[in-house]
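hey so i finally got around to running the thing on that chain from the lab meeting. sorry it took forever, my laptop kept dying and i had to restart like 3 times. anyway pasting the input first so we r on the same page abt which one it is
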Amino acid sequence: MSTLTVLQVGPGTSLQDLGRPGFSDTGLGAAGAADRGSAALANRMVGNRPDAAVLEALLGSVTLRTDRHVVAAVTGAPCPVEVTAADGRTRGAAPHAVLTLAPGDVLRLGRPTSGLRAYVAVRGGFAVEPVLGSRSWDSLARLGPPPVSDGDVLPVGNAAEGWPVVDAVAPPSPTSPGVPVVLDVVPGPRDDWFDPGWRTALTGQVHHVTPDSDRVGVRTTAAEALVRAVHRELPSEGVETGSLQVPPEGHPVLFLADHPVTGGYPVVAVLTPDAVDRAAQLRPGDPVRFRIVR
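ok and heres what got predicted. didnt touch it at all, straight out
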């Protein structure tokens, strides 16, 4: 079995797959990759099954050494990629390209120019021990393979089902500094709990991501808060990934992969799946605009 040794890793790096859906009745969320589109793309590029585990790296900052020949790909946040051979020679590499690594090669991801999460897939997937059928780390439940640390040895599995059919794919369009990221939302289910002006407060101004954001949710702030029209207590009810839950201060919290399965604040709208992937790449301070699509 091939392995990759973690020489250096930044905080918040974990293994993720499609998650563990089906346990909400026990209070356990699905978790899984925060940017599911980027994780799925990385797996497709190396010929993996959709359920193969990938490495989710926060702000790049990952260095891995291979012990055998490995096919890999890096997607998500556009970070610098460098491959150094065992003899010290460095060769060109890039994100969103299929990488062929030889024994002793070192793969290094730098800090991305924009975005937050990069994904590393290897042909065969990372074969750490699953927990309840998934290799995803759930930061809220503290369940699953623990976050990746320096010195970890990650085995490569057999989750491949084909061979790469492309050398590279077009990277996503980069975000420009100071230009708001547009997130599409569908109103409800509790939009009737807010003052009729909630649409203007949500879509008519720029919101900013606050530093206290993580895989559970993206917290936002803006000049104008959403105002409740119904002030009675809302019994806890089920919430989905992408839900915009509005706490008493009136600034939406956007639920990501590790969100709780229930919430006691009204959900004014829910993001589309593509918008959830874009939200997973938001950094603290990034500007955001919400757009109602129906």
